[in-house]
Automatic annotation (TrEMBL):
SUPFAM superfamilies reported for this sequence: NTF2-like
Span of domain SnoaL-like: 18-117
Species annotation: Streptomyces calvus
Transcription listed as a keyword: no
Keyword Cell wall biogenesis/degradation set for record: no
Keywords: Isomerase
Pfam families: SnoaL_2
Record-level Gene Ontology MF annotations: isomerase activity
Organism lineage: Bacteria, Bacillati, Actinomycetota, Actinomycetes, Kitasatosporales
Protein name: Ketosteroid isomerase
Length: 128
């Protein structure tokens, strides 16, 4: 994993919060990962309407997300102030039993309190 940060060593909270997010989602800890988001946070993900707030995020992770289980591997992580960009790979199983393997990019905005106010996800997959 490569990492670059423009922040001093003592200001790694945004990157740490993002790493924690992936650990919690891979462990299936929906309650824990929801607490990483601000109550009014927005999540933008291809194929879904914008998700806003804890209730919509929880419904997504428990009911709508097509992924059953799997593991994220972070290949790169860059921070600039309170913004974190992640490049990685996901491998897992979908709810319909199919295997999934996809590269992704995530962009997080982290508040001074260390919670996400915004997340936007992109997937590397041929569409056009």
């Amino acid at each position: 994993m490569s990492e670059h940060s423009n922040a001093p060593e003592t200001e790694r909270a945004p990157a740490d919060a993002v790493r924690r997010y992936y650990r919690l989602v891979d462990d299936g800890d929906v309650g824990g990962l929801i607490q990483l988001f601000e109550p009014t946070a927005e999540y933008h993900r291809p194929g879904y309407d914008k998700l806003t707030g804890h209730d919509e995020l929880e419904r997504f992770y428990r009911e709508e997300r097509v992924i059953e289980s799997g593991r994220h591997t972070i290949r790169g992580l860059v921070t600039a102030d309170r913004e974190v960009a992640v490049q990685g790979e996901f491998r897992g199983i979908l709810r319909d039993g199919r295997k999934a393997s996809v590269e992704f990019a995530d962009f997080f905005t982290v508040t001074p309190a260390g919670r996400f106010s915004r997340r936007k996800t992109f997937f590397y997959t041929p569409l056009v």
